[in-house]
Write a structure and sequence with these properties.
- The protein is α+β, with helices and mostly antiparallel strands.
- The chain has a single domain, classed as Small Protein B, Chain: A.
- It has four helices and seven strands; from the N terminus they run βαβαβββαββα.
- A hairpin with a 2-residue loop joins strand 6 and strand 7 (about 110-120).
- It starts with a strand and ends with a helix.
- The model has no long low-confidence stretch (mean pLDDT about 90).
């Protein structure tokens, strides 16, 4: 398993309740481009439209910019490959107030590109400050233990 991209801020901005793994419907040049350069997951999200899930907002540059056709759109919505039961479960959960589907990381698994996304609840500013305080206290405790 090789990680191609990771959304580092997702765990800070969201409280991840559940994680899911999905394949992505990509073009051949998009696969090459992702394996070579990766992409940025910040600002992307997962949306359920009807009975299908889509990865929205991802910018995947063309593999060879001079050789692309005129119809290539680097920011198109990409279909996620999930089971129907998973999609129905996600439809019910995403309708709940405050829950969103956040991409966490993009990686290869057995030669295929997978997207791990989580069902997350948005953290408020106060909760973020408390999280930072807890981390600082834990660091101070660890430093004190190392000194003795």
């Amino acid at each position: 398993m090789r990680v191609l991209a990771e959304n580092k801020k997702a765990h800070f901005n969201f409280e991840i309740l559940e994680k899911f793994e999905a394949g992505i419907s990509l073009l051949g040049q998009e696969v090459k481009s992702l394996k070579a350069w990766g992409t940025n997951l910040a600002g992307t999200y997962v949306v359920i439209k009807g009975e299908e899930a889509f990865w929205v907002g991802a910018n995947i540059p063309p593999w060879q910019p001079k050789n692309i056709g005129g119809s290539y759109n680097p920011q198109r919505d990409r279909k996620l490959l999930l089971k129907k039961s998973e999609i129905k479960y996600l439809i019910g959960k995403s309708k709940q107030k405050g829950l969103t589907l956040v991409p966490l990381r993009l990686y290869t698994k057995n030669g295929k590109i997978k997207l791990e996304f989580g069902l997350g609840k948005i953290r408020k500013k106060v909760e973020k400050k408390e999280l930072i305080k807890k981390r600082e206290i834990e660091r101070e405790i660890q430093r004190a233990l190392r000194e003795y």
